[in-house]
Amino acid sequence: MVEAGFTRAKNTGNILMKNLMDFCIGTVVFILIGFGLFLGEDWLGIIGKPGFDIFTNYAEFDWSNFVFNLVFCATTATIVSGAMAERTKFISYCVYSAIISAVIYPIEAHWTWGGGWLAQIGFHDFAGSNCIHMVGGISA
């Protein structure tokens, strides 16, 4: 609602739809690609090795951890929406949302929260200041 308040009234529907699509598109690509890159087995501290436990080990899969991290992924994508308000076409925004949810957020979040190189040198990110807000701001 804050984002819609900072734009012209005629764009409110577009803003709301972009935020909804962040979650819809983000969920699909985070399931297929992002979650494995984020919390998969660490490879050289840079990336998680994608796995398909979400599909193969359905009963034992940690769904609460997945949903928790999915919301952070969608939040990162939504931060950029405010900077792009009234400046991009809807389809272009949807493509961006898919890219940040599938690749950008999962890889950089792996560095800190997934056991990557930043975590290995002792870096801590409390409440997402680095993994969510900084990456959303830089992407914007």
How would you portray this structure in words?
The chain starts with a helix and ends with a helix. 31% of the residues are buried. A hairpin with a 3-residue loop joins strand 1 (41-43) and strand 2 (47-49). Strands 1-2 form a two-stranded antiparallel ribbon. Helix 2 (12-39) crosses helix 4. It has helices at 2-5, 12-39, 53-56, 63-84, 90-113, 117-120, 129-139, and strands spanning 41-43, 47-49. The protein has 140 residues and is mostly helical.
Attribute tags:
140 residues, globular, 7 helices, mainly alpha, two-stranded antiparallel sheet, 4% strand
Distance between the termini: 18 Å
Helix content: 55-70%
> What's the arrangement of strands in the largest beta sheet?
1-2
| Number of extended strands | 2
Could you spell the SSE succession in H and E letters? HHEEHHHHH
Shape: globular
Structural class: mainly alpha
Main beta-sheet strand count, sense and barrel state: 2 strands, antiparallel
Question: What number is the mean pLDDT?
Answer: 90
Uncertain spans, ≥5 residues at pLDDT below 50? none
Identify the quaternary structure here: single chain
- Count of discrete alpha- or pi-helical segments spanning 4 or more residues: 7
Q: Kindly estimate the percentage of residues that lie in beta strands according to DSSP.
A: under 5%
| Global Rg | 16 Å
